[in-house]
Amino acid sequence: MTSVKSLTASVHARLADALSAALPEAASADPLLRRSDRADYQANGILALAKKAKANPRELATQVVEHVVTGDLIADVEVSGPGFLNVTVSDKAITENLAARAADGSGRLGVPQREDAGTTVIDYAQPNVAKEMHVGHLRSAVIGDAVRRMLDFTGERTIGRHHIGDWGTQFGMLIQYLIEHPHELDHEADPSTDVEAAGEEAMSNLNRLYKASRAVFDSDEDFKTRARQRVVALQSGDEETLALWQRFVDESKIYFYSVFAKLDMPVADDEIVGESAYNPMMAETARMLEESGVAVRSEGALVVFFDEIRGKDDKPVPLIVQKADGGFGYAASDLSAIRDRVFGLKADTLLYVVDARQALHFRMVFETARRAGWLSDAVKAVHLEFGTVLGKDGKPFKTREGETVRLEDLLDEASERAATVVREKAEAGGIELTEEEIAERGAQVGIGAVKYADLSTSANRDYKFDLDQMVSLTGDTSVYLQYAYARARSILRKAGEARPVAHPELELHAAERALGLHLDAFADLVAEAAAEYAPHKLTAYLYQLASHLTSFYADCPVLKADTPEQTENRLFLCDLTSRTLRQGMTLLGIQTPERL
Ligand code: ARG
Predict the structure, then answer these.
(1) Rounded distance, CA 501 to CA 575, Å?
(2) Distance 247 CA to ligand 1 centre (A)
(3) Residue 124 CA to ligand 1 centre (angstroms)
(4) SS3 label, residue 113
(5) Is there an atom of ligand 1 within 6 Å of 477 CB?
(6) What distance in angstroms lies between residue 387's CA and the mean position of ligand 1's atoms?
(7) 162 near 375, Cβ under 8 Å?
(8) Residue 166 Cβ < 6 Å to ligand 1
(9) Cα(354) to centroid of ligand 1, in Å?
(10) What predicted TM-score, i.e. pTM, was given to this entire model?
(11) What sequence ranges are listed for the domain Arginyl tRNA synthetase N-terminal (predicted)?
């Protein structure tokens, strides 16, 4: 496993050495190094240390400076303000370090694999059977996929779980209706239909069935009774009933797959493990909780109480493990899933990418599992909550008629608008693109835009779904990053004979230094964003990277540089930047077309 130490880490080590030489009791102290506008870095740690040692901070800072080894790595260090250190690194160190990163044969751009990595089971992209997916499901999928890619890249072993809603009393009504109208889900097997068309057909069948059965259920008391009996048959494992239930699940999966395909997101069939999969464990889960005293009987139901969780009249709100009629619900399935993931899949971390509105549910479920000993200091559970998707008007996202927006329509619209942007930009640049190319790039740009907008707001915040803003060429959008990538690639193509080669002996322009130092931060940033499950930190980093690249082009001619060496060195910067952009976007699940 290769990994290239970042310049920041090397400077940090140098300063820590100087600090302990100047003040032996500060041997393991952190110099608190940050990137700075004044110099390359500023270290602020001396102030607190001086205070502790009852020393004058400026004097201590001066002593530290005397112990800093300068030359190859650190070009200059000086005391500033009340006792800060301003550090400037050498041009040579910047270029050499980037060259080592570029040469890292693993293609990891210096990002290390964690040696203490464990297993994370990540619960994300969990739509419900026989129901249309909504923007909340989109968010879980997009954030979950990005977090998973980041974790994988840092060496964590990840297992996905799509905890789809495939169980519940609503199936009694649906199955009973299908029994009484047997041809409603029939299909002509037509091998020519594509995933997308099949998905749309499946969902429209399910919608029609849902509406029709609902209408009968609401108007016909006898049907209602038969539907309730059907629920009992389903729960007791009646074969005919189960077979029909399975048809609803299969039909829904056709639809789910089509939406995920449109989202350009891989979903593995063996990771679709819905609520129903835990049915065989539920009774045991309940028994374990009751026997250990974690759950108690209350009015016939099996429940868990929490001191801190109270409702309106200050009455404790319990978690219901088993209803008085013996039925199990959402909580029992999640509690059983925890047992499966901890003891079966041997997870060290359980991560749930779920709407913030389910926060109370997870708090109660996690606390119950902790009391039962299934979760511990060694196995933690995290609810990565995300906020609500809002319309432009700041209200929950709906159509003008107040209906939920169909995801396929939304994604199609994003792709169409992006296609318009691609077309206009190509025409303005005199680039000829075929209709096919425009459509393909439109999808890459449009889907990327939706994902990026979702990922660039920190997950716990609500965010406004605004397509116009998402596909804008300027500002913090994926399109801006995709163009930055395509532009770098185009320069590399136009270079002809000239190759990207690092020349550490060359002096760097300020814009080259800024770009180089930002590239240096990639590895540490990826590790941080992954550890914090924070894709928005990666989007912010990439946006800055693209901005540095833009300033670099403005100030530093690449193909018309002063010397051939300078051209090579600048091509080298273009190459490493494009690879970093591409890797970063890949971690977000966003494509980077070679030409735009
Ligand atoms: N299907 C649920 C919904 O649509 C989300 C499931 C979340 N995961 C879980 N383990 N409860 O709201």
Answers:
(1) 10
(2) 21
(3) 8
(4) coil
(5) no
(6) 15
(7) no
(8) no
(9) 7
(10) 0.94
(11) 9-89
What residue spans in the chain does CATH classification 3.30.1360.70 cover? Answer: 7-89
Q: Which atom of ligand 1 is nearest to the CA of 355?
A: 12
Q: Where in the chain is the domain with CATH 1.10.730.10?
A: 407-588
C-beta of 367 in contact with ligand 1 (< 6 A)? no
pLDDT in tens, 409-420: 899 999 999 999
Spatial distance between the Cα atoms of 274 and 267, rounded to a whole number of angstroms: 14
Does 128 sit in the ligand 1 pocket, CB within 6 Å? yes
Residue 188: per-residue pLDDT: 65
Question: What is the topology classification, in CATH, of domain 7-89?
Answer: Gyrase A; domain 2 (3.30.1360)
* Residue with CA nearest ligand 1 atom 9: 163
Question: Taking residues 406-431, what's their average pLDDT?
Answer: 92
- Residue ranges of the chain assigned to CATH 3.40.50.620: 119-390
119-390: CATH superfamily: HUPs (3.40.50.620)
- Ligand 1 centroid to Cα of residue 135, in Å, is 14
170 lines ligand 1 (CB under 6 A): no
Q: What is the dihedral of CA 499, 503, 507, 511, to 10 degrees?
A: 50
What average pLDDT does this structure show over 120-131? 96
- Say if CB 335 and CB 285 are below 8 A apart: yes
Contacts of 372 (CB under 8 A, 6+ apart): 288, 289, 292, 294
Superfamily of domain 407-588: Isoleucyl-tRNA Synthetase; Domain 1 (1.10.730.10)
The verdict on the CB of residue 354 being under 6 Å from ligand 1 is: yes
Rounded to the nearest integer, the mean pLDDT of the chain is 93
Cβ distance 419 to 438 under 8 Å?
yes
pLDDT at res. 194: 86
